[in-house]
Amino acid sequence: MPGIWEHSLTTRPINDLLGNIVKKEEQLKKDGIIPEVVVIGQGAAGTELAFGYKRRWSDYFGQEIKVSIVSHTDTVLQGQAPAAVDEVMSKLKKHNIAIIPNERVKEIKADRVVFESGNEAPCNVAVWATGAEAQELTFKSDLELLNGYFRVNDHLQSTSHPNVFAGGDCITIEKYAEERPIFPPKAGVYAVREGPIIAQNLCNVINGKPLVDYVPQRMFLSLLMTGDEEAIANKHGIAFSGKWVWRMKDWIDRGFMKLFDPHYLFEDYAN
Predict the structure, then answer these.
(1) Can you state the angle between helices 17-30 and 44-61, rounded to 10 degrees?
(2) Which of 113-127, 134-148, 212-226 has the highest mean pLDDT?
(3) Domain chopping of the chain, boundaries
(4) Could you tell me where the DSSP H helices lie in the chain?
(5) Which residues contact 205 (CB under 8 A, 6 or more apart)?
(6) Cβ neighbours around 48 below 10 Å, total
(7) pLDDT at residue 266 is higher than 90
(8) pLDDT (0 to 100) of residue 187
(9) Would you state the pLDDT for residue 156?
(10) Burial classification of residue 128, based on how many CB atoms lie within 10 Å of its CB (0-12 exposed, 13-18 middle, 19 or more buried)
(11) Do residues 40 and 1 make contact, with C-beta atoms less than 8 angstroms apart?
C-alpha cells in the first residue's frame, strides 16, 4: 500500500519498533510538533498500541494527545467475545481514543490517511498494525505452500522438504487448513509455543529420535493492556479488568519474553 514505509511507524520488524518510536518522538519534540496519531488496525495489537501511544506521548509531550483507531467495522476486536469488546470500548471512551468506523485505508500521506471512501483523517503519525498476510517469496523455492503459507505437518515439518521446519505466522498446518476462522490464529501466543517444538524436533532429527507433535490450544487467556496500569482479560466469553489483571499480565509477559532466550527452548541447549 502506498506510503506505509515512507509515512508510518510499522509494528514490523518488531525488533525496530521501540527504536523507531524513540526516534520519532525525539524528532517531533525537536520540531515543536504535538503528535496526532492514527492507528490502522483494530485488532489486539492496534488497540493496545492506541492505549500505549496515548499514555506514553501524553506524558512525554506534557499534554493530552489525539489518538484514533481505524476500523473496517463500527468497533474494535472483531470476532472477540462481546463482553471483551464492551470492556475495551468503554476504556477507549474513558481515555478519549476515537474510532474511525467502517473505513479501509487506500494510502498514507505525510499529513493524513486517505480512505477508499474518499474520506481522510489528518495526522502527523500513522501507525501500521494490521494482521498477518501471506507474502510473495523473494527467493526461488519449491517448498510446498498452502493458502500462501509454508505447508507443515503436526511436527511443524515441511510436507515437501523433511529437513525444513517452520513456525509462527509463515505457516499453515495441513490438519487445520480448512477451518474457518483460520486456526491456529496468526498470534504470538501460538508462535512462541511452536518454538520449543521446532527446537526439539531439530535435535531429534539430528539424533535419529522420533519427532514430537505440536498440539495448538483451542482457548487461551487474552490479556490486553490499557495504558493506565490496568488490563482487560477475556476467556470463555467472560471479561474482567483491573490493576490486578495488569500485574498478572506483566508477570506472564515477562515469562513469555524469556522464551526468546535460546537457553529456555530445551534443556540440553549447550549440546
Answers:
(1) 40
(2) 113-127
(3) 4-128, 145-218, 222-252
(4) 4-7, 17-30, 44-61, 82-94, 188-207, 243-258
(5) 163, 211
(6) 19
(7) no
(8) 82
(9) 98
(10) buried
(11) no
**Residue 235's beta-bridge partner residues?**
238
Q: In the numeric block, which cell numbers belong to residue 250?
A: 506483566
User: Distance between CA atoms of 127 and 70, rounded to whole angstroms?
Assistant: 10
Residue 26 CA, distance from chain mean position: 25
User: Angle at the Cα of 111 (from 105 to 114), degrees rounded to 5?
Assistant: 20
**What angle (nearest 5°) sits at the alpha carbon of residue 228, between those of residues 225 and 234?**
30
Q: For the segment 59-94, what is each residue's pLDDT rounded down to a tens digit?
A: 999 999 999 999 999 999 987 889 999 999 999 999
* Nine cell digits for residue 177: 487448513
Query: Which amino acid, one-letter code, is at 82?
Result: P
Cell numbers 487448513 correspond to 177
Half-sphere CA count of 262, side-chain side, radius 13 A: 6
Q: Which residues contact 185 (CB under 8 A, 6 or more apart)?
A: none
Copy the grid coordinates of residue 246. 495488569
Q: Any idea which residue has 475495551 for its cell?
A: 88
Q: Which amino acid is at 84?
A: A
Pairing of strands 8-10, 125-128: parallel
| Cα separation, 172 vs 153, whole angstroms | 9
| Digit-coded pLDDT (tens) for 11-63 | 888 889 999 999 999 999 999 999 999 999 999 999 999 999 999 999 999 99
The fold for domain 4-128 equals: FAD/NAD(P)-binding domain (3.50.50)
